[in-house]
Write a structure and sequence with these properties.
Layout: E1 2-6, H1 11-26, E2 30-36, H2 40-45, E3 49-53, H3 66-87, E4 94-97, H4 102-112, E5 116-120, H5 142-170, H6 178-187, E6 192-194, E7 211-213, H7 229-236, E8 242-244, H8 254-268, E9 272-275, E10 288-291, H9 296-299, E11 305-308, H10 312-320, E12 325-327, H11 334-344, H12 358-370, H13 372-386, H14 390-403
Parallel strand pairs: 1-2, 1-4, 2-3, 4-5, 5-6, 6-7, 8-9, 8-11, 9-10, 11-12
Amino acid sequence: MRILIATAGSRGDVAPYTGLGAELRRAGHDVALATTDAFAPLVRDAGLGFRRLPADTRTRGGVTGTRELMGAAAAFVTELGQGFADAVDDGTDLLLLSATTAPLGWHLAEATGVPSLGVYLQPTAPTGDFPPAVTGSRSLGRLANRAAGRFALRMADRVYAHAVTRLRHRLQLPPSSPHAMRRRQEQANWPVLHGFSTALVPRPSDWRSGLQVVGNWWPPHDPSEGLSPDLEEFLRAGPRPVLIGFGSMASGDGERLSEIAVRALRRTGLRGLLQAGSAGLAAHGDDVLTIGDVPHALLFPRLAAVVHHGGAGTSAAALRAGVAAVTVPVTADQPFWAGRLAALGAATDPIPFRSLTAERLAHALGQVVEQQSFTRAAVKTEHHLATENGAQQVLDAVRKLTDG
């Protein structure tokens, strides 16, 4: 079967799908991943076909207000929709759609007759259990949580409105709105498998049928692959270090963050790894080493703690390694995941990005390193994650969908 996975966003929005795609490929399927050019090497290294999506996921300069942000998002998804139409060829047998691409992929599925399945990295369906992931982690009460969830979907539909109009025109489909299509999918119990652990987000009891939480899809790595000689030497030269990194977040804040990181590490007497990332963190010294991208599965089990931005993938990787965390959420769903880690006891209370100081970071690092309760909670969750097989559940859903 020829399967096309479609996603767009940052590295954290793409890497899990390379792991899912690799598992589908091992099961005998021909798998391609449609995403933006920046991640072509990541996709091809996983042994998957690459289909280009043209949208630029970088933050557009000067965009700050809510209206401007929604306008920029609408322009992004309009461009995305046109590229997505080009990525689906006549031989595609199944579409696997992320939360970002599903509101476009539904229309492609209608036009082509190709079946589709949701594979989401975030919970998007309204529930009384928690507020929308994009609005933070503080519960508003069951009724208000559900109302906020419905409002978030209405705002998303507004963002996709122009893209859907253009896409349906190109596909020669009759006019329809994002809201009308979403309602059709909900009424049909369109299946969505969520690639995160029930330890972090148990399946809400008020979700409709067809929505499942199946466990993470882990980015692949070569078991024979090792760490670089410099990094291996640093790890062996003393006590376990702390990793500090912000992934694809905080571009332009590298100097400030590097200074804060080094001051916090030295204040607590800890050794540290600074992961450059988009921010460009960098520092030098016997007790600190700057590194680039390193597979989480290889590095995280050898750390004392991880300081990160609260991205879904990094949060899960730390738990998988049984490592406690200090979270510094920047935007979007990061406060949600940071709050979930804290609720598990596997991380300190989140430090808002703009409130980060060396003193606050040092205090939090002292807590996670000195108080073993954080590590015990992370290890307990690690054992839970080991019982889940998210990729296998997707394989089962694909088999059921195509056999049915």
